[in-house]
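Inverse folding, one chain.
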């Protein structure tokens, strides 16, 4: 099993989370259709495909319209959920209201606290790293290599990075592996993490799973954020189920605090779905999911949209749910494209738009995601609407 460094997406993290969080909202099956959807088809009583495609903006608005082509509306609490009931699991029973803390507007005009006094830098400037940061890679190598040969761990890591990425020199992964190994043995956490990956994969060095895990844990304990997340993944892989998730939780938390989106996503799932989690932590599940979504993690954006629409981990917010679903869909997430089509069909968080609904359905169908309900909806559109949707889908794909 390959452990990949951040910022790799939808690889080991998604696989492990879906394999272990059997009731988690994140592990939606792509083939699940939106329950409770009433789609417009030619067979509806007293209607025709052309009539179904007409939208009366005077009677059909956004938020909770179930059949947007006949103007009917259900009460707010009867809006269909994006997540099938059988997948909700324990999540529905553990909804938490959002924090009622002071917001930005409340703080406007308030005097800001004084900035902490800067500590004077008493160390010696690293000329090699300075040259590297300015893009003078050959100069950085010339300055770092003599120090690396004398056993300087930071210089060894810098030399390894230059060879690994081919910065100013020909890329040489074997030389990079050698210097990562030297720096790891000398105690550099970043090098430990990189060398642990090489040992795990058996790339340019003999494969050594035991040594890899030892280095990954050591780097994690020394504060390397990527190592913290990956070591958490190793624990989950070695101990499937809640036991592994709880063992990995401290490492996920440290990694998430340092900004690793994969870890932030993992926290949101564990906090909401695992038994025995402190209520204060459980109440923060949506907050961590929001952080991962803002970092550009498309799976987190999809889940956040579902949580907002379905009221998971906090109150419902259909408008925000629609925005996040569209963002994930525009980023290429196929499940989000499918769900976005349902939101347009049912006017959830937006006004009904048959052409946009069909466009996103076509894109998800081309990617291999079948949906009989949306297919019926699509076939019920007029020929002109179908052509417009195909054109829009083609333009989106080529943009």
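Residues assigned per position:
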């Amino acid at each position: 099993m390959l452990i990949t460094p951040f910022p790799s997406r939808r690889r080991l993290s998604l696989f492990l989370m879906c394999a272990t969080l059997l009731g988690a909202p994140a592990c939606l099956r792509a083939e699940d259709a939106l329950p409770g959807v009433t789609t417009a088809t030619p067979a509806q009583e007293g209607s025709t495909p052309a009539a179904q495609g007409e939208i009366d903006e005077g009677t059909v608005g956004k938020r909770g319209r179930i059949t947007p082509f006949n103007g009917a509306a259900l009460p707010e609490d009867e809006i269909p959920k994006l997540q099938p009931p059988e997948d909700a699991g324990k999540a529905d029973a553990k909804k938490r209201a959002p924090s009622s803390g002071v917001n930005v507007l409340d703080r406007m005009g308030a005097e800001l606290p004084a900035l902490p006094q800067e500590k004077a830098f008493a160390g010696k400037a690293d000329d090699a790293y300075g040259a590297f940061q300015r893009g003078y890679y050959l100069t950085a190598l010339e300055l770092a290599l003599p120090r690396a040969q004398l056993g300087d761990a930071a210089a060894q890591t810098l030399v390894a990075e230059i060879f690994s990425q081919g910065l100013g020199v020909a890329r040489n992964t074997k030389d990079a592996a050698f210097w990562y190994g030297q720096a790891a043995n000398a105690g550099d956490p970043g090098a430990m993490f990189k060398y642990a990956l090489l040992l795990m994969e058996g790339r340019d060095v003999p494969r050594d799973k035991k040594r890899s895990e030892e280095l990954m844990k050591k780097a994690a304990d020394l504060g390397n954020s990527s190592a913290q997340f990956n070591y958490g993944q190793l624990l989950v892989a070695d101990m499937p189920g809640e036991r592994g998730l709880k063992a990995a939780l401290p490492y996920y938390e440290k990694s998430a605090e340092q900004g690793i989106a994969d870890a932030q996503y993992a926290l949101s799932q564990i906090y909401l779905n695992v038994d025995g989690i402190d209520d204060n932590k459980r109440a923060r599940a949506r907050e961590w999911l929001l952080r991962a979504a803002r970092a550009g993690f498309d799976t987190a954006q999809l889940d956040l949209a579902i949580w907002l629409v379905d009221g998971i981990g906090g109150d419902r917010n259909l408008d925000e749910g629609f925005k996040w679903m569209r963002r994930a869909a525009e980023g290429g997430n196929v499940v989000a494209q499918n769900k976005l089509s349902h939101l347009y069909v049912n006017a959830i968080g937006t006004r009904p738009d048959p052409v946009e609904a069909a466009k996103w359905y076509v894109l998800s169908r081309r990617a291999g995601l079948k949906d009989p309900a949306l297919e019926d909806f699509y076939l019920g559109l007029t020929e002109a609407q179908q052509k417009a949707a195909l054109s829009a889908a083609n333009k989106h794909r080529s943009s």
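Residues 15 and 270 are 14 Å apart (CA to CA). The longest helix spans residues 242-257.
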